[in-house]
Amino acid sequence: MPKEDNNNKQYTKEFKELVLKRLDPPKSESVPEISKELNIAKSTIYQWIRTNDKSKKQSIQTTNNKHSSKWSSEDKFQVVLETYTLTEEELSAYCRRKGIYVDEVKSWRYLCLKANATISKDPQKIENALKEEQQRNKDLEKELRRKEKALAETAALLVLRKKAQAIWGEPEDE
Fold first, then answer.
1. N or C end of the chain: which has fewer CB within 10 A?
2. Which residues in the chain land under pLDDT 70?
3. pTM over 0.70
4. What is the pLDDT of residue 53?
5. What is the pLDDT of residue 63?
6. Distance in angstroms (rounded) separating the CA atoms of residues 149 and 151
């Protein structure tokens, strides 16, 4: 991507943007890392940062503008992956670069490790409990139908009694 021009390397705008993008969160690679990898002078990269707009420059500095509580789950998981094998000193340096606390990373790591550690019950017990509940439900529905029929019968008898009284009147005592 760099173009050669009289011993001075000239870089395309797209290449500079790609390098500057690598400095942004969630990757937040350091200038020395990129400088060594791409064989570009650190001063050149710092010059690109200075010439870029101020909002871009602020997000590239050692702390993140975005508070870690607003990070996405993927970003937090990425941090856990990147820091899992680091020593305490390396972790501290990493956290300073990212603008986060070591305790946050440790809590994210703990949550990631416990994410799939749910306590599972014996499938046979669950199946038996389900069968019991289904039988209980069936019995309750049967009892409900019986009571509905009795209620309907009682209502019908009351209606017949009222009709009989309307037709023949009140029964007389003899």
1. C
2. 1-8, 25-26, 53-66, 68-69, 118-119, 173-174
3. no
4. 53
5. 37
6. 5
CB 139 within 8 A of CB 131: no
| CB neighbour list of residue 26: distance below 8 Å, 6 or more residues apart | 71, 74, 75, 78, 79
Q: What is the pLDDT, as a whole number, of residue 91?
A: 87
Q: What region does 7 belong to: left with phi over 0, alpha with psi -120 to 50, or beta?
A: left
Contacts 24+ apart (CB under 8 A), 92-97: 96/62, 97/28, 97/30, 97/62
Give the count of beta carbons closer than 10 Å to the beta carbon of residue 60. Answer: 22
SS3 string, 91-107, reads HHHHHHHHCCCHHHHHH
